Amino acid sequence: MNTVAEKGNSKHIARESIQQGKALLKEKLCSSDIKQEPFAHLSIRESFNMDTDEFEKKAFLSLDKDFIAQGGLSKLHPSALKVLLVISAHTDVDGYAWISQESIGKLVGLTRQQVGVIIHKHLLNNVYLDRKLLEGIKVRKRDGQDFYMYHPINCYMDYEAYDSDKDFEGIEDYEGNIETYEID
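Below the sequence we write its predicted structure tokens.
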């Protein structure tokens, strides 16, 4: 699961394809000379909504004051920041996202084509104050369909995965005074 919003779309991307995409993107990141100087702190908390029987995520992003003061934010296209925020909010526990450009567009009020231009022109192929903000690759699945795998970089990530034990912490196994009946 990448997000609740993507749930219907991401099911057709096999786990194997996602893992291969992550491995390829990780290899690309390791072989690059990207300067690692975090400009953002992304905090993600997973929870489980018992009413809807679905996992939910809350993502909080804060930007480095120096990045803003030195003009990095003013150089960043406003739509690029919105797209980056959506991609960042849809990362998994490993820091990768595979949300479709169409879904990003719906969330930020742009067309799929505009999102593609923003990602390629302003995020993948641009550097702000010596910091690259996003890395990505296009992955072709065995059935010939493509999907994009993204990894926000220069971003400190704090991801708290859902832990069902916390929901029941402090609750003892309770059998109470329920009478037991033996049946044949």
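Strands lie at 40-49, 54-63, 127-128, 131-132, 134-140, 146-152, 155-160.
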